[in-house]
């Protein structure tokens, strides 16, 4: 009985490893703009590891790019966010889908939610910068160009950069 249980655990470990490999390959294909291939790999990863809900947001992003099925893609991202709400990359992927669908306002909200979970999440910062969205001035009663706002903004930005963990 124990031998059968050990063998089943080994099989599950192998299937999980294959699922992770499909996921990693899908991410590489997504960044290489090979959306159809990425979609295939993400679908395989979800089939092999159905409990890995984090894969769903990447599957949704690939689905939006490859097949332009924005509502299905949005639903997949939302399911992923429901199970792993603290992961900023899911909000970022949802923002990318909104942007592809032409819903700029919703994309900005999703990117901002990603930054609420991790203020140093660079993909969301870059996306907002690309869209022309800036942080509000430190002192909203003064214009953005006022020397006090400029000085405080630089000081806060410097402080945030110092608090970022250095890569090992």
What general form does the structure show? elongated
CATH class of the largest domain: Mainly Alpha
- Report how far the terminal alpha carbons are from each other: 45 Å
Query: Percent of residues in helical segments?
Result: over 70%
- Spans of at least 5 consecutive residues whose pLDDT stays below 50 are none
* Main sheet record: none
What's the helix-strand series?
HHHHHHHH
Mean pLDDT over the full residue set: 86
Number of helices: 8
Give me the count of strands: 0
Could you tell me the strand content as a percent range? under 5%
Q: Please identify, by name, the CATH architecture of the largest domain.
A: Alpha Horseshoe
Describe this structure in words.
It contains eight helices and no strands. By secondary structure, the protein is mainly alpha-helical. The protein has two domains: 133 residues, Serine Threonine Protein Phosphatase 5, Tetratricopeptide repeat (Alpha Horseshoe); 32 residues.
